[in-house]
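Our consortium's second objective concerns turning raw sequence data into structural hypotheses that experimental partners can test. To show how far this objective has progressed, the report includes one record in full. It was chosen at random from the queue rather than selected for favorable results. The single chain below, 496 residues long, was entered without modification.
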Amino acid sequence: MDRLRQSLSQSQTLRQVQNLRQIQVARLLELPAQGLDQHIEEEVEKNPALEAEEVTDPGVEGLQIELPGRLLTAAKTPASAEENEPSDWNGYETDSYREPKIPLEEPEDFYGPFNFGNTQSLYESLIEQLAAFELQPWEREVVEFIIYNLTPEGLLAVPLEKLARQYAYQEGKEVPLSEWERLLQHVVHKLEPPGIGARNLLEALRLQIEALDPQEEPLKPLLWKLVTEYGQALEKGHWERIRRRMGLEEATWKALVRRLASLNPRPGLAASDEVAPAVTPDFILHLRDDGTFQVEVLYYRPKRLRIRRQYLELLEKLARTKDPELRETYEELKKRVEAAKQFMEHLQQRERTLRLTVEEIVRQQKAFFLSGCDEKRLRPMILEDVARAVGLDISTVSRVAHSKYIQTPCGIYPLKFFFSEGIRTESGGEVANKAVWSHMKELIAQEDPERPYSDEALVKLLRERGIQVRRRTVAKYRQQLGIPTAAERRQLYKLR
């Protein structure tokens, strides 16, 4: 019975240690490169057994972790001669990292290049603006979740109810829908350019009109009345009927319509000419001449972490002491050394998990990267797809993707950009939402202003490209992208 109790106690203690380790590694996974650098400095300051040295050698990059008996390194350059020399720590072994081999063969047929550089600056700009708001940590998380789910045009295509469910599933915590609505209206809708976060065309126009200065824009009251009282008629393109009901003279009416046409139904595109704020990437994706990819994990400032030699030497001297006071000193030293060793092992596990996850994201989106970042070549991919492929929990993959960026040959992207739900096509296949959006935008950009494509015409054109979706799906995506109907576009083309 005593042995059974002892066995159960040991098992419970082991589970507690494993759970604590998982929590500590999870916290490290959430940290971006700059946040990790600060965390390492705090840990070094807290534990005198841990020593961090800035690596000034320009040939060495990344984080080097020195544990007794071995050297673990994230450096992409070979070890220097000095590092290969014998030392008091019985020699080091360098752990090399795996490089994913991605073949060039791609059987699917996609169309044309797509430059995502302008869109990327929008997300960065919106995140930067959040510094002006006094937000609690959970509020900022929700706002960032909304921002990263905006379309490239700056519109919110996903219903808040669905976003709230996705957030609860990925983050393991629920936020009331009323709070989502409040943060959308009082934070996201206040970001620049005006119209960001709008859920449809009318809301985008309303937010832009609301931001106008009445002293500089005398037509603001009429514009507001037009979109708030005659919104339904406006969506149907009943211009003459609206003019009669508003009782406006022809000159005033034309000025009003011209001013309305000058507003941007896709406000996010207004950020395309702005300079993107500086973002520190957490990864670099190298594309080699032979078609293979290499994922490099970046660190804000290269460091060499080690346990202080004085602590190790003193620990060895006190190991066999029988003096009670010295024994107490020994136990305290041992505790600090073990804590330092555990922290470095957690950093090693963090890098392994980051690399494994990002390599899988790159593997699944290989068509996108090999095409020069053509958005139409994105494949449907959710957190569960990556988690299943690499054998990790969904929550772990979510932590890796949270607030981290990857530098690619065609720009810097947030990792969350590569996750997109898919829709079932009539042929039984699946296509990413963002790919369909990109095709629709391309088709509408090329349409004849005299004969804009109806939703039914877009369905036929998409079918010619191998995408079989229903008309109501096309109408839904068009509205989510803030694109007016064919009749409305025809009127807008005439005014330009």
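The partners drew two points from this record. Confidence is low (pLDDT under 50) at residues 13-18, 69-120, 272-277. The domain at 422-495 is CATH 1.10.10.60 (Arc Repressor Mutant, subunit A). Both points have been shared with the crystallography group to help prioritize constructs.
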